[in-house]
Amino acid sequence: MNYENSDMATNAVILGHIWRVDTSADEPGACEVRLGRTASSQDSEHPSDVTAATASGSLHPAPDTVWLDAVTTRGEGVSQEELAKKGYLTSSGIRGKRFGDFELLELGSTTVATLAKAGLDFTVAASVPFPCTRYRPPKKPGLTRPDSVYLHRVGSRLLPVAVAEWKDKSRLRSEDEDLEAAEQAVVAALSMGVNIAITTDGRRFRYIDAAASAAAGEIVEYQEVRDLAPGVLADLYRGESGLVRDPKALAENVWQTVWHATKAEPKDCLLTFVEIFMLKFLSDNLPFSVLPADYRFDALLPDEESFVGQKGKTQIEYYVSHIRPKIKEIFVERLPVDDKVVRAVFGLENESLNSTTSIINGFAFLRSSSNEAPSSYNRTFCEILQSFQDFGALTNIEPEFKLRLYEMFLRRSAKQQRLGQFFTPRNIVKAMIKMAQLNKLADDAVVLDPAAGVGGFLLEPLLFSDALPGNVRFEDGKPHQRVKLIGVDVDKDTNILAKANMLLHLAESVRDPSTTPSALNQAMANTFILLNGNETLGALEYPPRDSVDVILTNPPYVTQGSAIYRKEMEHSKGLRNGVFLKDYYDNGGLGVEALFLRYISGALRPGGIALVIVPLGLLNRTARLMKSNLLSECNIVGSIQLPRGAFFNTAQPTYILILEKRRVPNQHRPAVFCGLARTIGETLDHERVATPGENDLADLAELFVHFRANPASKVDRATPYEGSRIAKLVPSAEFGADERWDVIRHWSDDEYVALGVRAETIDTADFIKLAEDTLVELLDELRQAREEIDRLTAGEMTSLSLSNSRYFQIRSGVRIRNVDLRENPGNIPVYSVFTRQDTIKGRIAHNWLTERYIRPELFPSVTVMATGASAVGTVFTRENGCVVTDDVVLVQPWSRRDERDWLRYRLAKKLEVPADEISDEELDEVDPLTFTSYDAVNADALPSEQIDLNYLAVALGRTIAQGGYLYEAKLYTKRVSQLSIEVPVLADGSFDIVRQRQIADAAKRLDNIRSRLEEAGRWSKSVRLA
């Protein structure tokens, strides 16, 4: 485009014509354009005036004045260019992106006036009768630029039905910002004459009735809480918004009808519901060429007399004899898994692996009879058919419907049978998918769920824009997946439910005539793998090896009776994917979930991540071998506590444990992201009412993603993350093999109370079962602890007095007042008299210490609280680099001479001089914060290793407890030096450092058991029985 400036006018050559642009027009951001002559034609030397006016302008020469918006001051082509660049302008007019039965234009720069001229069927409003209080609208409605416009094509007409304004979540934090966005959306909707205005930050959607808002003079919202999807928009457009189409009523109605008629098990009732649902779904979506009219749902709807007259059979008999076989013919029961990558994951690339299920096989009416369904069930069957017919067409099934379908049914049946094993609540699945960041996976990456159930972890990512939308596609009669999704289960019925679920999630592909049934069959066969050659082991029989990028799973919880799994492994013959199962799973853990953790740690590629639902008992259990083996392969990067009652089928507390496969054996262990989720976005009772404003788990998922993108530097204590009260970063050392892996211990009692966690309500039978399980497990661990400690302490011991300066140093800390901490804040932790090891008095500035010749501790130490009614005699170990106050006594298991020799050697090495040239004065000036060996000072680099520091803490604590010290008996240095400890020795009289460490480890595990007993007592006292 060329411009020639002349006072308040500009000549512009646009599309081969000279336009006169009058920038003195009254409308701010607009300009008047007058057509001059054709720049490329000799015939058009005489200028012609233009006389027509529009609200937004046009690039086509016209006989009048054209108004251009602020962007089109730089050329009306900018607005048109956006439509063209995004592919919306076609030879047949505007065509948007498909959005269910609608079309979507994603814009931002195009005015509504331009859209009207481009072919949308609406008239731009002359004015907008809405009193904006926060948003400043353009003076002319035609200059409004909506971010998104949703269209409905009716014959040759393209009608706008809704507009949306998309805002960054940082711009929707306050009520004023919410109001401004809502007013902007309403102005855009009224400018186009549509009723539906939407605002969103991508996570929260607000649906506004523009016409009602204009009439009321304030924002009026629709009663709709779901995320935006084609089904939601269809309901709003038809006036059916809200929860009218919630599947709960349908599921419960069918449940009641089937159960009362057949007295079938809840699982059979569920399978029956899904079978009839699939018949309706397929009838509404498959072309007649695939499912002819006689095999469709509608064929069963005539009254019984007419139907029998036509077919010679009742509806239920006809369904069993004709329609069921036809569906199984379309969706075959036996099909080889043809994806070599999938087979290779399990080490079966050179062996056959077959899918042996269809999408239906659970008809309770048929199961109630050994052969064919009796006609006596026909009336009930017809009632169910009518319920589905009344519910409406199952064509455009919006995501919420797909996700809630099984969930609603399972709520109804969970109390009668543990069907929850099939299902992880949708809000938990969604958060775990968010944390997995599947959208960042490379092509051909593998996502696995070894306990897939109905497939939520693998199918829901297809619905989320930040996960794997469009991951499954069909080309040339074959399925393709950018990222391989693999779900394994041992149960045939569950495998059927998963396949049916997959069809629902691929509804648009099912509806597409170019998608063949064989391609759908192959997609399901390659995705949901039935491994039931050994029905006890299931997925555990074929463990993947270093081949999976992401694992998302909720494995079964079984501790009692789990020995049968190990017996099966002992009797297993030959190799499975290159390993002997007995040896591969010999990790010392109790319960099936421990076996699955071994499966998971071996399956991940280096750098791969796993998010696993585990019971609290697994994390708290004193299973040192299992934990150390897991840590040898993986880092723990996250541990998130879920609220009790989060799952339908269990009241026991559960966690999301997040693991990352170590890239190299000596890889640094990162800080652990710990979270306390009090809420999950819905009530935790039987009804599960949505509470989108109360979702700690969603907030924690966002924080975890931020944490992964911005790795924290090393933390030395539990530290609140990003100012959150429910998230902390915890040192990796707190998640060692001898530690508990739960998170509540990293919140103080005051912090926990401040979170406002309410006392939970639990069914009496569930309480008794939970209490029994907890006590049985704790009693078993106490028995093991007693046997271990008895064995370790039965050996030879010797008594050592702490006054023996050959082996010990004893001294008090330094005086640091509260006012000193307030006036000189810094990074050096200061410990004083407290009953919790992680409690600090404060942090003080290093320069303040230096000015007073106070040096932070160069070595770790054992500390004894010298005073305090409840704290006196409490023993802790403290890290180096800290300072302790003068009411705390420090004990270190080496002599003063050993310490100075160690320092002299290290300093001489640093200065590259002989050790004997280092004076005592130079040693006294060594600062642990600047000494280069400071970071290397640890248990493997101490002045003496004859007495283990952790053992010293255990032995000293036992001596103090036996002495019965109370507040009156203060334990200052003189009194501590009079104490003695028992130390294990070898046959030659030397100190047995190995047995010391074993005793210290055993004592730590016993402390964990004691704390769990205490927590169980508090829980038992606080819980309310229903």
Automatic annotation (TrEMBL):
Residues 405-667 form the DNA methylase adenine-specific domain. This is site-specific DNA-methyltransferase (adenine-specific). One of its GO terms (molecular function) is site-specific DNA-methyltransferase (adenine-specific) activity. Residues 37-58 are annotated as: Disordered. One of its GO terms (biological process) is DNA restriction-modification system. It comes from Catellatospora chokoriensis. It holds the Pfam family N6_Mtase. It is an enzyme of class 2 (transferase). Residues 768-795 form a coiled coil.
